[in-house]
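Propose amino acids for all 348 sites.
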């Protein structure tokens, strides 16, 4: 059985090039943002902390005006991480290291890059919708989402460039990433619903894959793309974990509802439905990944074995997120999806 090891040398090299996730441990110390209003009466676009004026038009009409609907611990610290680790697809990727590749490898890399171009759009489009629905009194949440949108636009851009850089081009789009059937990120109307689907499930799976990017990269440019995107995705996933952690403590009456969102996310993750997980079963992207991981079209069986190990790693990291957010009771009380539980046991 193929395994997904920790690739120490790869990460040593990444650290030398500035890859750093040490800030994650700093988020363990909770700063709950006590100076933020529990309920915001601000419907006028007044910036947080400024002096209100009477008789101003209520043009904001914000949907989200309660702290416990949107807040998360440590967002100020997280935002600092966002803005100090921005990069450019034009100047920070060693594009010159890309050499002609065998047709099957190039096609697979381009199919994967097409998927990421598409899915990164969803990951910026949907948080963008929530920005204008949130009271300006919850500025830290808005800033974190704005920074995420900036990251995702860079991801969209870098994967598009990769698809176009070596003779392959953009390939088929995945049919269902932005579908409107139950449980999709795209049809979430509520902030916690959106965050648990996008940050916890969808981006969590993508983060695991980006972290293992060395396994599907064929040159330093691709390694750098996956590594830099992994660092960014870790921040997006952190928004969701920090939000759920806050909800667990301050809105326990919503725990059952949140568990329902997680039920839906797990069903999609275990079945591959919805197509958000590029490593999910029977996807265009999982076929492409099998080619890349195995080393060619004639080695897809080996690639599929590695892919199975990657799915196990995705589940293991998802369970870690549940634990960190305080929703790991579902792992022990029989609620968690049985397919995922089996993958977790196999990964342990
Ligand atoms: Fe992204
Ligand atoms: Fe993301």
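Proposal:
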């Amino acid at each position: 059985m193929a395994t997904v090891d920790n690739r120490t040398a790869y990460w040593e090299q990444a650290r030398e090039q500035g890859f750093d996730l040490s800030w994650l441990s700093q988020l363990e110390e909770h700063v709950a943002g006590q100076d933020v209003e529990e309920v915001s009466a601000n419907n006028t676009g007044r910036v947080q902390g400024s002096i209100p004026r009477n008789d101003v038009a209520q043009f904001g009409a914000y949907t989200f005006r309660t702290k416990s609907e949107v807040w998360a611990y440590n967002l100020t610290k997280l935002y600092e991480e966002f803005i100090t680790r921005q990069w450019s697809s034009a100047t920070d990727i060693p594009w010159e290291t890309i050499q002609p590749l065998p047709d099957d490898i190039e096609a697979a890399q381009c199919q994967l890059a097409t998927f990421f171009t598409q899915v990164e759009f969803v990951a910026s489009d949907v948080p963008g919708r929530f920005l204008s629905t949130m009271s300006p009194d919850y500025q830290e949440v808005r800033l974190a989402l704005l920074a995420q949108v900036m990251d995702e636009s860079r991801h969209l851009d870098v994967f598009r460039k990769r698809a176009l850089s070596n003779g392959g081009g953009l390939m088929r789009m995945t049919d269902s990433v932005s579908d409107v059937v139950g449980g999709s990120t795209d049809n979430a109307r509520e902030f916690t619903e959106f965050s648990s689907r996008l940050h916890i499930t969808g981006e969590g799976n993508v983060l695991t894959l980006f972290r293992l990017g060395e396994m599907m990269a064929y040159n330093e440019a691709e390694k750098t793309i996956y590594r830099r995107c992994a660092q960014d995705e870790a921040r997006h996933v952190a928004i969701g974990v920090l939000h759920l952690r806050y909800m667990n403590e301050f809105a326990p009456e919503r725990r059952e509802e949140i568990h329902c969102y997680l039920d839906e996310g797990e069903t999609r993750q275990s079945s591959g439905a919805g197509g958000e997980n590029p490593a999910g079963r029977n996807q265009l992207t999982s076929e492409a990944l099998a080619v890349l991981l195995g080393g060619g079209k004639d080695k897809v069986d080996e690639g599929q074995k590695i892919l199975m190990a990657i799915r196990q790693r995705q589940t293991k990291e998802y369970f870690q997120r549940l634990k960190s957010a305080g929703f790991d009771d579902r792992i022990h009380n029989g609620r968690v999806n049985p397919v995922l539980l089996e993958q977790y046991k196999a990964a342990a």
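DSSP finds 13 helices and no strands in the chain. Residues 123, 152, 203, 233, 236 surround fe (ii) ion (ligand 2) (CB under 6 Å).
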